[in-house]
Amino acid sequence: MNTRGLRSQLKDSVPVAGVGSYVSYGVQDTLRTGFTSVKNEILPGHPLELSEKNFQVNQEKMTLATVRNIQGLHAPLKLQMEFRAARQIQRLPFLTSSNLALDTLRGSDESIGFEDVLNDPAQSEMMGEPHMMMEYQLGLL
Amino acid sequence: MATLSVSRAQCGGFSFENCKRNAVLEADATKLGYAVPAARKTGTTICGIVFKDGIILGADTRATEGMIVADKNCSKIHYIAPNIYCCGAGTAADTEMTTQIISSNLELHALSTGRLPRVATANRMLKQMLFRYQGHIGAALVLGGVDCVGPRLYCIYPHGSTDDLPYVTMGSGSLAAMAVFESRYKINMELDEAKKLVRDAIAGGIFNDLGSGSNIDLCVITKGNVDYIRPHDEANKKGVRTGDYKYKKGTTAVLTTLVTPLHLETVGEHIQTMDTS
After folding, report:
1. Could B20 and A132 be called an inter-chain contact, meaning their C-beta atoms sit closer than 8 Å?
2. Known catalytic membership, residue B256
């Protein structure tokens, strides 16, 4: 069951800098992110931050658009059907997953990049809160 | 383990969490008069030419950290594939990691296609990666190799643009090296003549640019054979001391001698075996 509410989809395409650090009461976490200012909320800390956050999503969109132009409408539909099928049988969001099926579909099982070298999620020092992550995924947040 | 309230799982790659904090720290540091530590750059002369049988890549061997020479004999010609090598100028860490990642990618690609990798493939992979990071990865590369279509030489700039040329130079000493190339390059040169030309070009960079120095490394790539000559020419040998300040025993006359033996008593012996499990 993988329904995404509209709000969570919007967050994917329009990332807001300070949202990640809100504790459930809605108050900014000064210890983690420092004092707030309007500039900090709107502008990213680094010019590459936004483009890197959306890189995978944008690459997929470009691939599907190219494939639609070359091979016709059926091609992206079939590809997206396979992606959704692979996502449907995935684990709950807070559990570690090798993403083998998705990697194979995307072709990233045969390439290595900075996402494999730096910041390995298996070595992450922080744990995602299970309830929060499930609520986000179901769009109830 | 602290619980962080994130809505999505953490993915790998670059993390920009500390950028705002770093900007604030940098601003404060300049106010107090401290300088932010400089990254180690290669401030370099690298070059490559196409000659009759293949490619010759040349590089100097100095790595600088601001105004200090950090490494007098660093290796700037990196392995990408058995038939493809790449010289790197710019930030040393960026060139190392970029060439290693592309080398791994090319190996996986070659295993998947079952063929010897092409230089154009490495070029495209590099330019797509560098463009993705918009020049923030400071790696200026000279990529050369011999594949099924013949010898190929590319220069790749940090923002992702590339040029396919018969002779290229990059780095802070690139103008000096290019001056040598422009006056003496000919198409289809012989091996010895070509090696001398590359050596002179790098020497031009070494002697006329502060960011380049020490020795000259060469890499000759021909069809089926790679000759990695390190060092090809030690242009800057460290001087040998001509004098010696060690004095022989008996140079100074001994006036008096006083020997005081220290008596130490063994109080106890205790053996503790080392935990080598």
Report:
1. no
2. no
